[in-house]
Amino acid sequence: MNIEVWQGDITELAVDAIVNAANETLLGGGGVDGAIHRAAGPALLAECQRLPELRPGVRCPTGEVRATGGHALRARHVFHTVGPVWRDGRHDEAALLANCYWQSLRLAEQMALDSIAFPAISCGVYGFPLHQAANIAITETTTWQKSHARPLRIVLVAYNAAAFKVYQQALASTGLLTENAPPMLPPSAGLAAAH
């Protein structure tokens, strides 16, 4: 079992794949999406533009995932997943968010990737309550690792100290982390040589 909580900038991680909290167009946006597109460079946008539209303006429906190269990122791949917009919790938001994690992990397994990093999907402008989203992230990733060999390493990236604490508490509730655990080392430590 190797699920880590790390605070920092997901675009700096040298992992096999980072997950982008994208919108349905896959053409960039604000928050994590904009940061990933800026760090990856214009080739990422060009690759996203080549992905087929399922209907006008939709390259990836909510709850699904699409893969691209990492381009100028340290990560080899970007998995673009579209989280749900929080309405009131009664419009399948939890199931759709869970599917973002599950489908991303399934794609990582299919691609034989060893490491993947997730941001707090849907917790920015989409308004998903952080505590609920963190519990979903922990539940889906721990459940996945109980029955799948890959990816070997899952990193949950917190964008600030408050999110880091929420993730740690959610992980601690599973018995996998104690409240007083030392801060995690940056996931990029020791991985740069692999790229």
Give a concise summary:
The protein has 195 residues and is of the alpha/beta class. It contains five helices and six strands. The C terminus is likely disordered.
Structure description:
The chain is an alpha/beta fold and 195 residues long. It has helices spanning 31-40, 42-50, 93-110, 130-147, 161-172; strands at 3-7, 17-21, 65-69, 77-81, 115-118, 153-158. It is globular, with a radius of gyration of 15 Å. Residues 178-195 have low confidence and may be disordered.
List keywords for this structure.
single chain, 195 residues, alpha/beta, six-stranded mixed sheet, 5 helices, 6 strands, globular, disordered C terminus
Instruction: Report mean pLDDT, rounded to a whole number.
Output: 90
Q: Based on DSSP secondary structure assignment, what is the total number of beta strands?
A: 6
Give helix and strand order, one letter per element, not per position: EEHHEEHEHEH
Which overall shape is indicated by the principal axes computed on the Cα atoms? globular
Write the SSE topology:
Elements: E1 3-7, E2 17-21, H1 31-40, H2 42-50, E3 65-69, E4 77-81, H3 93-110, E5 115-118, H4 130-147, E6 153-158, H5 161-172
Parallel strand pairs: 1-6, 2-4, 2-5, 5-6
Antiparallel strand pairs: 3-4
Helix pairs in contact: 3-4, 4-5
